[in-house]
Every structure is written in structure tokens, then in C-alpha cells.
Amino acid sequence: MNVPITNPFRIGLRQERVIPPQCLVIFGASGDLTHRKLIPALFELFKQRRLPSEFAVLGCARRAWTDNDFRQKMSIALADKVKEDPQAWEQFSSLLFYESVDLQNRETISKLSIRLEEIDRLCATHGNRTFYLSVSPKFYGSGCQAIAEAGLLNDPKRSRVVIEKPFGRDFSSAQSLNRLVQHYGQENQIFRIDHYLGKETVQNILVLRFANAIFEPIWNRNYISSVQITASETVGVEERAGYYETSGALRDMVQNHLTQMLAITAMEPPGHFDPEAIRNEKAKVLQAARLANELEPWKCCIRGQYGKGGTKNFPLLGYREEPGVNPNSTTETYVAMKLFIENWRWQGVPFYIRTGKRLAKRISEVVLTFREAPVHLFDSAGGTPTSNQLILRIQPDEGATFRFDVKSPGSGMRSRPVEMEFSYDESFGEPSDEGYVRLLADAMLNDTTLFTRSDEVEAAWRLYTPLLELIEDSPWQLPIYPYESRTWGPAEADNLLAKDNLLWRRP
Length: 507
Ligand code: BG6
Description:
The chain is an alpha/beta fold. The chain folds into two domains: 8-164, NAD(P)-binding Rossmann-like Domain (Rossmann fold); 197-498, 2-Layer Sandwich (Dihydrodipicolinate Reductase, domain 2). The chain has 16 helices and 18 strands. It has helices at residues 8-15, 32-47, 67-77, 79-84, 86-93, 106-123, 140-149, 171-184, 200-211, 241-244, 248-266, 275-288, 424-428, 435-444, 454-473, 491-498, and strands at 22-27, 55-61, 96-100, 129-133, 159-163, 190-192, 224-232, 289-291, 301-310, 315-316, 334-341, 351-356, 363-370, 379-380, 389-395, 399-407, 414-423, 480-485. Strands 7, 8, 9, 10, 11, 12, 13, 14, 15, 16, 17 and 18 form a twelve-stranded mixed sheet that branches. The protein is globular. The two termini are 44 Å apart. The site of 6-O-phosphono-beta-D-glucopyranose has 3 residues, from loops.
């Protein structure tokens, strides 16, 4: 009899999910991310009673705010959540403190050290600190340096730094930034955050693949004919033109979020469920990934930019008319491309990925299309035979669908596709936590599993280097195709698949 192997790490992980006493230090506390994502996530953890009682948040920014100013600003920004549970907010907000700090100024950094010691005494946080760099990416390196030079990263067990995306702008800048941050801290003190990895449904890909015996044997080139990964948004650039103009969809979404979904979908099973085993496999698969045509990248990548759209009553501006956007901007708001993974599991299977703003629907999903039955015994009710598909819905409407053929009712023997559904909502009845809730908790638990390691980040940049170089050196070879707002992107992206006799899924 085959006895399943029990993983010793599994038990360990379950028992160690209690966040230890600590102070979370947020640099960039006056910025958007702090009140939009970080404080709401911490408040959620507080309400779920997952924060220790010896806990504090120290907001840091250049503005000369007091603790009270910070508490007030946060309660205004989170007004709806405060209204839902004013008592919990009152208790939680007493854990918020503020110190005016300029990461470029040594004097204010030494004041920070003193303040942290005070907080340790007041809140019993035991010198255990998580530093969150929610600042402009140009300060990631110098920020780590300032924290380290103040002696605040000396103890690798009780100090860590969380770094927001984007981590670098290309392969060489990411490599330099890695060298710099690794000079000031150990790799396991560096938490490069990608909020897609905090999504329950992205983690579920791991469970679906590795907790069920039926999927792994068919999860390869013998059974899967193609994979599509989509992250489409209905929103435009909103108030972020300043950042987006220097980034574009390739750097904003593809290099990080879509590539992480690709890695989790395509990686080999790890030997253990421990951070390094998982990250080794993710790094390996990214190192094996290639653009479908590295020498002529324009043949496997389409860039687009949204134009006007909407209705008479709700007109939508085109990207170039958005406030803060250059009227001649050549920044892409849409990317579609074809990749291959050159290993035994995936050789020859195309991976198509696409993302865009102002598309027809907000949806993130991974679609695995299986090979057709080798012999078609039955006529298909729809005319053409269909392939089985497994659709992993990352958001919204989180869940999964398996599409397969059954007998169409009636006297003949015709086949017809039907769908088998799993919905998070129906099965578990409660919405899953925001990605930041999970990731902040994991960082404070010193668990790096869902954070990107230096080699993964570099492999992801290396993968897109031929495209980035082309955009830099001869952008005319990778033209920007306009598309109407609230459509599925430029027709050229459809042609990319049509050449392979395929269609993008239109969910
Ligand atoms: C961010 C990007 O990382 O992810 C945004 O900078 C994008 O441009 C957002 O809108 C999408 O995240 P989500 O979780 O809404 O899919």
C-alpha cells in the first residue's frame, strides 16, 4: 500500500502562525499606499485578533506630523471602516505613532532609533521590527542603507525590510539594487512584495496542483496544448499618470503580477512546503522561460494604448488626454505576448499573457486548454469539437471552472460542453482577505514564502529584456496600437493567437 508522505514542514507552519511582538515601521506614511492598503490591512488583522498585544505601528515621512495628526489622518482616510466598528478603531489607533523622518538625513534617522527604543519600552515590542519601504523606488537602495547604517538591521532574526514594487526598471538595475540591499541585509531579511501572491486564489493554484493527485499527471505538454494568463482592468490610469508614464503595462503588471502567476502555474512540485523550496522552483521555471521569438520580439508581442470610449452619458477619456499624460505619449496600457518554457514539462506549449487598462471587464484568470480527443467519435452540438479547459478565476468571482463534454440530450449521440464550478463564495461563504492582509502578516511572521527572491526578480527582468531593449532602441519596431476604451484591446492581439488557430477567451 502506498502511504502518502507527511510533510514535516506542514505541521510546523500551522503551529507557528502567531505574529510575535513587534513594531511595524512604515516609511512613506503620508503616501497613498499607507491609507489605501497598509493601515486597512493592519486594522483587519487587528479585528481578526491576529496582531499581538505588544504591537505598534510607527508611521514615518518628512511631514512634521504628531502621533495625533497621523491617527486623525488615518481615521479620515478610513472613515467607512471606522464607522463600521468605532470601538475597534479607537483601540487600534492607539497603537499608531508617528515620527518625522527623512531617509536621506542621518540626524532624523538617529532620532528614529531613539523613538523605536521608546516604543519598545512603551509597547513591549522587544526590538523586533519590520521596516516597510513604501517610498519612491529611487529610495529603496538608500533607504536600506540608512536603516542598516543606524544599526537597525543588525539582528537578522528581529529585523526585516519590506520593499514595494517595482524592484528595478530592467535586469541590470534590479541586479544592482539586489547587490545593494544584500550588502546591507541578508537575503532572508528582504521581503520583495508582489500583492498578487497575497491573493488567496493565486495561492490556491499551489494547493490545487499539489494537494490533488489527479492534476499533476496531466499538468504538462502531453495533455495541455496552451495556457492563457489574463489580468484585465476596466479602470484607466486614474491619478497615477506621473508613475505610469515611466512604467507602462509591461513594467507595471507583466514583469511582476503576470509573471508570478506564470511561475506558480508552471513550476515543478517542490519537495517541501518551505520558502526556499518553493522559491527555488519558481526561479527555475522563470529561468527557463523565453519570449516566443527573442530575435524578432515584435512577432510575439503586441502593445496597445486606450483611446476614447464609453457612452454619450459616460464618456471616457483616451490615455493621451488623461491629466498628467504626455499628449504624444507612447506608453503602453496594454500588452499581449507569447512565451515558451524550455523544459521537459512545457517544451512547445505556448503561454499567452495579456493585461490592459480600460478593457471590457475586470478579470484575472489562468486558463489551461487541454489537447483535443485524438479521435472525434461524436458530432459536436456546437459544430466544432471543443477542448477541455480548466479556468482558474483569480478575481473577481474567485473560483475555478472545468469545462468538459457530455452527451447532448436526445436520440442522437452528439457531444456538448458543460461546466463544473467551484466558487469560493459558495463554498466558504466569506470573502477572502485582501492580498496585503496576508502579506503583511507573513512579513511580520518572518515567512518569506510569498515574497520574491532576488534570483526570481532578476529572471523575470531577464525574460523581458529583448522587449525592453527594443522599446528603448527602436520603438517603431514595436508599435503602439490604439484600442477603444472598454473593448478587449487591439485587433492585432487577436491576430497573435489567430496565427496559432486560437482565440483569446472572452469571459
Ligand atoms: C498594481 C498596479 O500593482 O496592481 C496597478 O500598479 C493595478 O496599475 C493593480 O491597477 C491591479 O491590482 P488588482 O489587485 O486590482 O488586480
